[in-house]
Amino acid sequence: MGSPSGPPFDPDDPDRDRRERDTEPIPRIGPDDGPGYGAGAGLSDGPSLSDDVGYGDGPGYAGEGRSGRAWIRDPDQPPQISEDELAGLRADAMGSTPRRVLPLEDEPSSLVARYLFPTERYRGEWKRHWIHLTNPLLIGVAATFVLGYLSGFLAGRSVGALTTIAVLLWFAVMGWVAWKVADWWYDRFILTNKRVMVVNGIVTRKVAMMPLVRVTDMKYEQTPTGRALNYGTFVLESAGQEQALREIKNLPNPNELYLRVVEEMYEPQAVEARLGKEADEAKADDGA
Predict the structure, then answer these.
(1) Measured between alpha carbons, how far is 107 from 113 in angstroms, rounded to an integer?
(2) 103, 275 contact by CB (below 8 A)
(3) What's the rounded Cα separation, in Å, for the pair 144 and 198?
(4) How far apart are CA 185 and CA 94, in angstroms?
(5) Please, are residues 195 and 120 in contact by the beta-carbon 8 Å criterion?
(6) Of 8, 23, 49, 205, which residue is 20 to 30 A from 170 by alpha carbon distance?
(7) What is the mean pLDDT of each run of 10 residues along the chain (288 residues)?
């Protein structure tokens, strides 16, 4: 018989106990050897986690009265995240949370109601941004200064007829500016659950519309000034055809309006659900 491999046995060797522990074989753990282990995970040669292992109260620390927790999660079970937890994650690259769609108006104005048929549902109406009046207002201010100076100059020359003409010209310019402001007031962009419309004109009224089901593409554009003042231009495409509503300039809150139109096109059930929820909350507030 050959000599055994390794160093000879020495009872005074300080490392003997450590080597014996390191070379001791690992016992097989069966399904009855303890809680939380079994063969259900498909590993027949070693311990496995059972299906019901998760976050829960463990048996506690030995010798202590407080309970412990087994921080073991089933890898096949996706983590559960609540809406409150997700709210803190919904932020854009600038660190600010996205804005929600603006609240829906309850009733159309008298200007718009006449153009809606009974079976369609009103979603909102918008006047164009005040930037739409920039040119008329600038012309009015410039005419006031120029014609005012001209009237004073002509009055010093004792030319009464020319002074009167300058004053009348100023009134004409102011009348034109007032007409543009009134036209802006009656110019409305309208959204329903079936179509988009533009209504404008004071004496000659123009009504243009496009069914939502015909809209094949929609976008909005914002210049640097538009981003600063929150207005934009909407471009609607419909099967490659020229439409009266192809380009709508100077609409306010373009991002919110874009979300409103897209939601109406692709998620009308979500709009109806939100309307029902808002109505229920309003009734609850009235009852309170």
Answers:
(1) 8
(2) no
(3) 33
(4) 36
(5) yes
(6) 205
(7) 53 64 58 48 46 46 43 54 51 46 69 90 92 95 91 75 87 95 94 92 91 88 94 85 79 90 82 67 66
With 0-12 / 13-18 / 19 or more C-beta atoms within 10 angstroms meaning exposed / middle / buried, residue 189 is buried
* Residue 172 neighbours by CB distance under 10 Å: 12
Ordered alpha helix ranges (H), 75-133: 83-87, 110-113
C-alpha dist (Å) from residue 177 to 29, 102, 199, 249: 91, 32, 20, 19
Q: Of all helices (H) and strands (E), which one includes residue 199?
A: strand 195-200
Q: Which residues are registered as beta bridge partners of 32?
A: none
Cite the DSSP H helix spans in 106-223.
110-113, 134-156, 160-186
Cα–Cα nearest to 53, from 65, 68, 38, 43: 38
| C-alpha–C-alpha distance, residues 144 and 160, integer Å | 19
CA distance 30 to 41: 12
Q: Which two tokens stand for residue 219?
A: 């976008």
What is the C-alpha separation between 230 and 102, in angstroms, rounded?
Answer: 14
Helix, strand and coil content of the chain, in percent to the nearest 5, comes to: 40, 15, 45
